[in-house]
């Protein structure tokens, strides 16, 4: 009977905890913020679930995982107000294993804890107008590529 209880507890612990929570780094992670010009800058970080705070970059910060983007606003750009850099999260690959191998309940836990998402370990913060324009062009190129791929798949 004791052996059965131990096995039952182990199975419940695994089934009720998502794979991404267990193996994918948990509900928080570190992100290395690097300025696009390589110089030190003062920024305001607005991470989901946290109050905004000021920090000098380059720096490694700790954030809670979320589907929402981290916003980084440069306070001392030579180009004036250039707007925030959005650091977007992506689906954590461990979450896919959770969906395939375990249950809807455990994948729901990954969503609730934020472990279903992750940010790139190193993110470039745009601190000049040139870097902002380059990032916008890269985003536009990605959109065009996706549209072409979806148009090709629909035909």
Q: What would you note in describing this structure?
A:
By secondary structure, the protein is an alpha+beta fold. The chain has one domain (2-128). It is built from 5 helices and 9 strands, in the order H-H-E-E-E-E-E-E-E-H-H-E-E-H. The protein has helices at residues 2-16, 19-23, 93-101, 104-113, 129-154, and strands spanning 28-35, 41-46, 53-57, 59-64, 70-74, 85-87, 90-91, 117-118, 122-125. The strands form 3 sheets. The protein has a 4-stranded antiparallel sheet with strand order 3-2-5-6, with no helix packed on it. Strands 4-1-9 form a 3-stranded mixed sheet, with no helix packed on it. The longest helix is centred in the last third of the chain and has 26 residues, at 129-154.
Give descriptors for this structure.
flat; 5 helices; three-stranded mixed β-sheet; alpha+beta; 155 residues; 42% helix
């Amino acid at each position: 009977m004791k052996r059965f209880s131990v096995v039952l507890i182990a199975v419940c612990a695994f089934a009720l905890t998502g794979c991404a929570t267990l193996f994918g780094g948990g509900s928080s992670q570190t992100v290395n913020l690097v300025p696009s010009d390589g110089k030190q800058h003062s920024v305001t970080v607005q991470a989901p679930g946290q109050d905004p705070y000021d920090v000098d970059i380059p720096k490694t910060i700790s954030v809670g995982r979320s589907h929402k983007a981290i916003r980084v606003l440069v306070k001392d750009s030579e180009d004036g107000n250039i707007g925030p850099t959005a650091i977007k999260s992506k689906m954590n690959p461990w979450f896919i294993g959770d969906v395939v191998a375990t249950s809807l309940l455990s994948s729901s836990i990954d969503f609730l804890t934020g472990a279903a998402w992750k940010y790139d370990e190193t993110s470039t913060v745009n601190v000049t107008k040139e870097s902002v324009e380059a990032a916008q062009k890269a985003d536009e190129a990605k959109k065009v590529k996706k549209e072409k791929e979806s148009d090709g798949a629909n035909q």
